[in-house]
Design a protein that fits this description.
The protein has one domain. With about 240 residues, the chain is mainly alpha-helical. Helix 2 crosses helix 5, helix 2 crosses helix 8 and helix 6 packs across helix 12.
Length: about 240
């Protein structure tokens, strides 16, 4: 995940007002849909950040452990701004996991270690998407009576939303622009000259990312990819269960 520098007090006030205003203009159906999305968002962010922390710890860096990030407590991993944006804008982030590559074991270079830690987050999201999709079809096939009940219908929507959110978070973080995970993953495969060039102009890549994010271009660019992966995932697992 990534980190922005901001005055949290001011942004929290603005965010609170925006959320209240946004929810006040929502219909009852839209509010219910939003509430059903919350569990998936919480799980996606929590497991994503935990995966970063766990990977770093297994590579020999105890920084995440000392900072209390080796757990699945959502409060340890949530950034309020990123959390709310993920719900409403479908693009957000969690509290960044701080690591010290110099603590990594000597089985991997620092660059390779950073790539492993970075890929752990998106990989966890894709694994969760698969798990939630399987759960969706297990309930649909073996617990049909429950699935078609009113409560069951809400549960099925919540599980489906969780799968979509995890695909979205995984895809978004693979964009190869700093400060996203994708930039650190692909950096490991670059030559020294390319890395030096990227470091020299890193601030411009940050600006490029911010432009893509603020203008909504990032969302429009990756939405077809998210839809394609999600549709393919549900079709594939649905076929395995003989439902599609």
């Amino acid at each position: 995940m990534f980190h922005f520098s901001y005055d949290k007090r001011i942004l929290y006030v603005i965010l609170g007002i925006s959320v209240i205003y946004g929810m006040a203009s929502m219909t009852k159906l839209e509010i219910i849909s939003l509430l059903l999305t919350l569990p998936g968002v919480i799980v996606a962010i929590t497991f994503h950040e935990f995966a970063h922390a766990f990977a770093a710890y297994k590579l020999g860096d105890d920084t995440p452990k000392m900072q209390g990030r080796l757990n699945l407590n959502p409060l340890s991993h949530m950034d309020p701004i990123g959390f709310v944006l993920l719900i409403f804008a479908h693009i957000g982030w969690g509290k960044p996991v701080q690591i010290n590559p110099r603590n990594f074991d000597r089985k991997h270079s620092m660059s390779a270690g950073e790539a492993i830690v970075s890929v752990a987050g998106p990989a966890m999201n894709f694994i969760l998407a698969i798990v939630f999709t399987i759960l969706y079809f297990v309930i649909g096939k073996f617990f049909t009576t429950f699935a078609i009940s009113q409560i069951g219908a809400y549960v099925m929507i919540m599980i489906e939303s969780a799968a979509i959110v995890n695909v979205g978070l995984g895809v978004f973080n693979l964009i190869p622009l700093p400060p996203l995970d994708g930039s650190k993953i692909f950096r490991n495969f670059m030559s020294y000259k390319v890395k030096t060039w990227l470091d020299t102009y890193q601030q411009y890549f940050y600006i490029a990312f911010l432009v893509l994010w603020v203008t909504g271009l990032a969302g429009r660019m990756i939405s077809p990819i998210i839809a394609w992966i999600t549709t393919g995932l549900f079709k594939l697992i649905g076929m395995l269960f003989g439902i599609i």
